[in-house]
Write a structure and sequence with these properties.
Number of helices: 9
Number of strands: 8
CATH architecture: Alpha-Beta Barrel
CATH class: Alpha Beta
Radius of gyration: 18 Å
Strand order of the largest sheet: 1-2-3-4-5-6-7-8
Order of helices and strands: EHEHEHEHEHEHEHEHH
Structural class: alpha/beta
Number of domains: 1
Length: 290
């Protein structure tokens, strides 16, 4: 049965690039979080949204305009366990892309070997969207991927951060927290959550994505985002990643401007050497070491 639009609403289309960031991205910048969608690929049911089509070629054009060198393609929830669109993208750009898949926690080693050869470097847990893997899958997934040096990528709610602090460090794997753990940035309520994120980043395998401020606040100028970026950059410069979150799924108003988003992150980071760590070096180590 097809879902009605009210059950899985159609996202806004992405905004075309009309200008470039005021300051170019560091040479070799790596976009660690984006999605692609193909018109004939079946969508999961149930799902949280219906995507606009945004192909690998569309992202490549976007990356070329902005000077993005490489990318990490993240499996969107609307495709569930069907990673075919992602795998086709990796096959088309094997030197430029790595992938984060969603797979059955019971998957065998042979399948992980196959995916690793194709450029997959992690598995996504997503507790916010229909079709995502639950946090309770972390232990089984960690056991399956540990010898491959993959990471767990976690899209979670902020009230799950304390659970992560207990659950993740003993797993002895790398892990990445998407979108600042969806910490609400309005007012000063974010400070305890950022301290909790810092504690996760204290772990040798813990990383945090400085991504999607428009998901964290409705205030003009993304109030609080710059202060959070500066706070984390001061304490954990080697554990931060940048991603575009292109094409900005699950938005039905106020589609962001990509150049403006990049400007805000770069302004908050400030120091060019620090920017190079966050935009290039940390992601190169985590995803492109082989």
């Amino acid at each position: 049965m097809n879902l009605t639009e009210s059950e899985a609403p159609l996202c806004l289309p992405r905004r075309p690039l009309t200008h470039l960031p005021a300051k170019p991205l560091p040479r070799g910048a790596i976009d660690t979080h984006f999605h692609v969608f193909r018109s004939d690929a079946p969508l999961n049911s149930p799902r949280s949204y219906t995507p606009q089509i945004a192909t690998t070629a569309d992202w490549l054009a976007f990356a070329e305009e902005l000077g993005i060198g490489k990318g990490v393609l993240v499996q969107p929830s609307v495709y569930g366990l069907d990673n075919r669109v992602l795998i086709e993208a990796l096959a088309a750009l094997p030197d430029r892309l790595r992938g984060i898949v969603v797979i059955d926690p019971e998957v065998g080693t042979d399948e992980i070997v196959r995916l690793d050869t194709l450029g997959v470097r992690g598995i996504r847990i997503n507790t916010r969207n229909k079709g995502g893997l639950p946090l309770t899958a972390a232990e089984k997934l960690a056991a399956a991927i540990r010898e491959f040096d993959w990471s767990l990528q976690l899209q979670i709610n902020p009230d799950q951060i304390d659970d992560l602090a207990v659950r993740l460090p003993p797993l002895n794997i790398r892990f990445v927290i998407d979108h600042l753990g969806f910490t609400a940035l309005d007012g000063g309520e974010w400070r305890p959550y950022v301290r909790a994120l810092q504690q996760l980043a204290d772990h040798p395998g813990g990383y945090i994505k400085l991504t999607a401020p428009y998901r964290l606040t409705s205030q003009p100028g993304y109030a609080g985002f710059a202060e959070v970026v500066r706070t984390l950059a001061a304490s954990h410069p080697d554990k931060l990643l940048w991603g575009s979150d292109w094409p900005h799924t699950e938005l039905w108003s106020d589609m962001p401007d990509d150049a403006d988003l990049i400007d805000r992150v770069q302004e908050a980071i400030g120091d060019p050497a620090l920017a190079r760590k966050i935009f290039v070096e940390n992601a190169e180590t985590l995803f492109f070491g082989r």
